[in-house]
Write a structure and sequence with these properties.
By secondary structure, the chain is mainly alpha-helical. Helices cover 63% and strands 3% of the residues. It has helices at residues 3-18, 26-33, 37-44, 50-53, 63-76, 85-89, 94-102, 116-139, and strands spanning 103-104, 107-108. The protein has a two-stranded antiparallel ribbon. The protein is elongated, with a radius of gyration of 26 Å.
Length: 140
């Protein structure tokens, strides 16, 4: 199941929990969340294949299976690791970062490609360095 299907399952689960009716079909759910009933039936068919055959199937019966599946998939997905303050504090200046990450045996390696996290680190280190310089200029 791909990421869009997982997001749609979460949307279906949220709608099923918010609807107070005891009996919810794919048609009534599609009117609630704005997704085609065929797509809802295809996604729910992984839990019970009768959903695609019986158009009056109660989707509230599938809620425990959907909750288990969504919880299992959410645990497996890795969360983004944000650069922490302690990691940034290891570099006092921008030149320290460049020397640590972009040099090889004392020579600047121009072929290194930085990823988004490292670029955000550079940006935060540079902004911190600018703040300290401004503070020093104000003191003079």
């Amino acid at each position: 199941m791909n990421k869009t299907d997982l997001l749609l399952l979460e949307k279906i689960l949220g709608a099923l929990t918010s609807i107070k009716a005891k009996y919810v079909t794919a048609d009534s759910l599609s009117r609630e969340i704005g997704v085609l009933p065929e797509k809802i039936q295809d996604l729910c068919a992984t839990f019970n294949p009768l959903v695609t055959i019986d158009f009056s199937f109660n989707l509230k019966d599938l809620m425990p299976e959907i909750e288990k599946h969504v919880a299992m998939k959410v645990k497996k997905t890795a969360k983004k690791v944000a650069s922490a303050k302690k990691e940034l504090s290891s570099y006092q200046r921008l030149i320290d970062f460049v020397y640590d990450k972009m040099t090889y045996e004392g020579m600047l390696d121009k072929s290194i490609v930085l990823d988004d996290r490292e670029l955000r680190e550079i940006k935060s280190i540079a902004s911190e360095e600018l703040r300290t310089r401004r503070a020093l200029k104000k003191k003079k």
